[in-house]
């Protein structure tokens, strides 16, 4: 017969929630930093397509 698990304490729940939120803040910060470098034209870590026309092609 199935037995219910013990209840998770409030402090454990808050710790887990804080860790989860800290990870999302870190990822969002990296994404924002990458976007800034692309917009300013200083990005050297990856290639991306621009809308500039290449001269010499028709």
From TrEMBL:
Entry protein name: Large ribosomal subunit protein bL32c
Single GO BP term: translation
Record bears the keyword Ribosomal protein: yes
Family as reported in the entry's similarity comment: Belongs to the bacterial ribosomal protein bL32 family.
Cellular compartments annotated: Plastid, Chloroplast
This protein's UniProt keywords: Chloroplast, Plastid, Ribonucleoprotein, Ribosomal protein
GO annotations of cellular component type: chloroplast; large ribosomal subunit
UniProt GO molecular function: structural constituent of ribosome
Domain of life according to the entry: Eukaryota
HAMAP family, sorted: Ribosomal_bL32
Main localization of the protein described in the UniProt heading: plastid
């Amino acid at each position: 017969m199935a037995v219910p698990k013990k209840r998770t304490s409030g402090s454990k729940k808050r710790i887990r929630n804080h860790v989860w939120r800290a990870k999302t803040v870190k990822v969002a910060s990296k994404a924002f930093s990458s976007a800034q470098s692309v917009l300013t034209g200083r990005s050297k870590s990856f290639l991306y397509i621009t809308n500039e026309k290449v001269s010499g092609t028709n």
